[in-house]
Amino acid sequence: MRILHVHENAHFHGGVEQILFDTARGLSANGWEQALLYQNRDSDDNFKQAFDMTASDSSIIDEFDPDAVLVHKVSDAGLISSLTNKKPTAQMVHDHDIVCPRSHKYFPISHKVCTKPAGLSCYQHLCCIQRNRSDSLLPITLKGTGDVRKQISAGEGLRRYLANSQFMKDELVMNGIDAERINVIHPVPFALISPAFQPVEDNREILYVGQVIRGKGVDLLLKALVHLTGDWHTTIVGDGNHMNECRQLAARLGIESRVTFAGRVPHEELESFYHAARVVVVPSRWPEPFGMVGIEAMARGRPVVAFDNGGISDWLRHESTGMLVTNGDLQSMAMAIGGFLDNRNMAEQFGRNGVARVEQFFSHASYLDRMKQEMEGIL
User: Fold this and answer.
1) What is the pTM of this model?
2) What is the pLDDT of residue 364?
């Protein structure tokens, strides 16, 4: 079978690109030919190795002649409509882009998670006012719900939506998409193909892995850490446009000597960071569409503390593989983290539970089998 993937990037950027890369590489190993049509002209040869053919020109559609198309993140509604008219097409919904003008699904002033469909609430909560690009003459721009309506309208020709969590399926349904056209499929990266428990070190190390942007809530983690007692140390692995603010916040809170900002680390080098950690924290402000980092932590036998929002409860089992904390409750987050720092045996038992859960429900092989079924099912 020949699959054409369509995405905005042809380089490693975040979790979406890792899943796209691993999906194409895995399907290719199963004998399916893979191609990539990307929108942004910047590309990475290492990323493109997962595909038999790549191009930023839509002529690849006729040249590659796929049996089916899998859309990932694409802002061009016209392109989606064109694809659905030519080939059986499915869309993998990685995040909130197609149903939220801000893409973040939380309000810019209150920072509360939005539970409404795109529409009047986008204007009531000023989500229509957005920051402009750095090269623009104006600091802000106005963006209404027109793009959301275009995306949903363009999707009428899709044969299937693949949502990465039950939360994301519910969000699509809330915005008028028929539930019968949506299947939930949890994306699992290749790195988890062999989950294995790693004994917990005799230290009090806390780990965060991910982008350092406002939606990921690193600032919330730093504020929660102030409530911890005893010795502890935190490593922040990742980079992003909120880094400087977080560094300054750590200094203001008087905890800069206990926090290491490690910067961006290649995926294959994360092992040592997970091994050194007692607990991994997912403090996201935005409702995580899925939360792949938590799965990676569980696969390595590390308990996870996370705010209970978005698709996190699809994989984190409260008081079994980690702790779910009421969104934004910093003291409760500190208590949950402190519980694992104070009780090594509990951290190890939760870690073993996490490995077992990943082995049962979140293997890369089972994910690829599901993807094959879904793509064959749209023909």
Assistant:
1) 0.90
2) 86
